[in-house]
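Submission checklist for the structure archive. All mandatory fields must be present; incomplete records are returned to the submitter.

[x] Identifier: UDP-2,3-diacylglucosamine hydrolase
[x] Organism: Campylobacter armoricus
[x] Residue count: 242
[x] Sequence attached
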Amino acid sequence: MISIKENAIFIADAHENENRRGFWKFLQALKNGKIQTPQLFLMGDIFDLLIYEIKATHSFAKIYIDLLEELANEIEIIYLEGNHDFNLAKFFKKVKVYSIDKQPLLCKFEDNAHTFAELAHGDIFLKPFLQFCLKSLRNHYLLCFLDFINNLCGFKITQKILKNQNKKQLVRKIPYFPILIKERISHYNTNFIIEGHYHQDVFLEYENTKYLNLATFAYKESFFIVKYGLEIRFHKIELKEA
């Protein structure tokens, strides 16, 4: 079981692309020691599009993959796949990758009480049809076929997806989010839940269960540092402040 260490960093939804390079700046800050941590949790959707079978997504991400592997020599890096970046295990040897089938990931805080937490990108426990579609899209053979079609049409499919992602509104408050979270909590088995995916940047408590939805890093380049004390805290800072 993974223990969440003091000063561990959590990042969700960086949505890195050709026009958005905040995560690259963050990795450079880790490399040169400006930011220091013993442990890095990447909570999914770190890239706008990165899929092992879709070769057109590889060239942009290669320098990130190489640097993450380099950093993993000194830092424990845990990468929970999202719905924009998946089937990643073959990219990495040292970074620990957890697919949607391995989420939620049960971890242990290193506080005095040894509190447990469940981590997930957030695209689990959805409506059955939607969950089926998301899992089907991860099928190796289907993706190989889509890669063939994408190459055949001059990469128009991946270009269209990335173009649409650039237009996407990254921050949008969900008015019924507390109701949604109340329903989601019922599927988990611990009293501390950490997710990305929804871009809400909220901390809620419901019947002794703590739920943290991480801010999207892509918006203000915000990430979270774990601090232990009388209680477990996730201290949010922006990259420009680090």
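[x] Structure attached
Curator remark: Residues 11 and 200 are 13 Å apart (CA to CA). The domain at 2-241 is CATH 3.60.21.10 (Purple Acid Phosphatase; chain A, domain 2).
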